[in-house]
Amino acid sequence: MKPQFLTQNLLIKEIFHSLQGEGGRAGENSIFIRLANCNLNCSYCDTDWTQGDYLSIETIISKIKEYKSNWITWTGGEPTLQLTTDIVSYFKGLGFKQSIETNGSNPVPAGIDYIACSPKVSIKKLNNSFPNGLDEIRYPIKLNQKLPSVELLPKAQNYYISPIFKGNPQEKYELDYKNLEYCINLIKNNPQWKLSIQQHKIWKTQ
């Protein structure tokens, strides 16, 4: 009999092979598994996470085995709504390293190799979700938005500022240079932070 988690179907928005576009792993070869659904609905979200297809773990494996990468990036939507420790452990047993892109609203499954959080929740909630720290915190920042204090945040290897691109649908892949300048000046005055640009929007390709 198969373990129960192997009979579980995940609601998948898309699976594709590309390079990591932002943060501490930017430029790295990765397989992206985008899980559908989210528990938040941010106005500046650039991803369609609604709907999707239910796929078995075995079907997912058959789809990704053709790609030449040993990294899986679980993203969304919000991947913690579906991803479990058993699933992470299974893919790890197949030789994959795994990262996760999360909004910080839930703890991540054990066994994740790289945790990247783009916070959409309170600092208190972040500290509850990551009591042992994480690899990176990457704040999306819009013009004139203030930075939180690093001292209040969970411990991270890297703290990034990610300038929000232009917001309307026609310009969502266009960099807002006024906001970029604002973010650069924030980092000049707050050297604990680094700049992360969403390179994949500039590439306009997977």
- Number of strand elements: 9
* Helix run count: 5
What is the percentage of strand-forming residues?
25-35%
Mean pLDDT: 91
Low-confidence stretches: none
Major sheet summary line: 9 strands, mixed
Q: Which strand order do you get reading across the main beta sheet?
A: 3-1-2-4-5-6-7-8-9
Q: What Rg is obtained from the alpha carbons, in whole angstroms? A: 17 Å
What is the straight-line distance between the termini? Answer: 38 Å
Helical proportion, percent range: 10-25%
- What oligomeric assembly is this protein in? single chain
Q: Which structural class do the helices and strands define?
A: alpha/beta
Return the string of H and E elements: EEEHEHEEHEEHEH
Can you put this structure into words, describing what you see?
The protein has a nine-stranded mixed sheet with strand order 3-1-2-4-5-6-7-8-9. With 206 residues, the chain is an alpha/beta fold. The chain contains five helices and nine strands; from the N terminus they run βββαβαββαββαβα. β8, α4 and β9 form a beta-alpha-beta unit. 31% of the residues are buried. It has helices at 57-64, 85-93, 123-129, 177-189, 199-203, and strands spanning 9-19, 29-35, 53-56, 71-75, 97-102, 114-117, 134-141, 156-163, 194-195. The model has no long low-confidence stretch (mean pLDDT 91).
Provide the fold topology:
Layout: E1 9-19, E2 29-35, E3 53-56, H1 57-64, E4 71-75, H2 85-93, E5 97-102, E6 114-117, H3 123-129, E7 134-141, E8 156-163, H4 177-189, E9 194-195, H5 199-203
Parallel strand pairs: 2-4, 4-5, 5-6, 6-7, 7-8, 8-9
Antiparallel strand pairs: 1-2, 1-3
